[in-house]
User: Which sequence fits this backbone?
């Protein structure tokens, strides 16, 4: 259940090529449905002011299946790595938004109730200076909330750097979400999810 929170955006990073997986992660399917669509349904329940999907590799294949209430931003610099998608997401957020709940399309154990733990920590007033990160297995990262006052801080990241290098400097509020540790990087990861809804390991770098 979401407590009263300020206007915020959600941005789902789904632009990567998926080199180790063998195809773009935005194209992962469970049966006949893209898993990205399940993630969109999860975040819709948070009632954000907007839901941004950052597409890149695989854009033409997945775009027709995305719901009209999602806002598609194409990162034509996706080959520069995850950093470029984070920067595209933050730059694309509406001016009135207090910040962005940032997540990836491959943390497929994350559900609405996990994200509510983050959103429910947002103050009812000004949350533009707030930073909240998921903690898991002795570290922290995405999913995370980045207040609008911190957007420019992330312009320094490059290549395949995730949000973590900057998050470390912002002393974020930490929310235990162990499921954030698990993501899909290889065919074995995805096979394990399809068979057991769990992963044997995780190496998330958000």
Assistant:
């Amino acid at each position: 259940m979401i407590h009263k929170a300020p206007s915020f955006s959600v941005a789902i990073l789904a632009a990567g090529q998926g080199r180790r997986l063998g195809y773009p992660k935005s194209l992962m399917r469970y049966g006949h449905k893209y898993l990205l669509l399940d993630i969109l349904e999860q975040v819709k329940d948070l009632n954000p002011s907007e839901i941004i999907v950052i597409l890149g590799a695989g854009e033409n294949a997945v775009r027709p299946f995305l719901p009209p209430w999602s806002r598609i931003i194409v990162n034509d610099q996706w080959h520069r790595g995850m950093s470029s998608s984070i920067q595209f997401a933050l730059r694309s957020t509406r001016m009135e938004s207090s910040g962005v709940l940032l997540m990836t399309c491959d943390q497929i154990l994350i559900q609405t109730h996990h994200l509510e733990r983050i959103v429910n920590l947002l103050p009812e007033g000004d949350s533009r200076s707030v930073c909240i990160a998921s903690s898991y297995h002795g570290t922290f990262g995405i999913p995370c909330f980045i207040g609008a006052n911190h957007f420019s801080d992330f312009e320094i990241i490059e290549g395949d750097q995730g949000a973590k290098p900057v998050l470390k400097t912002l002393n974020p509020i930490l929310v235990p979400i162990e499921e954030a540790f698990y993501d899909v990087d290889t065919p074995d990861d995805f096979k394990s999810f399809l068979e057991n809804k769990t992963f044997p390991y995780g190496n998330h770098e958000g």
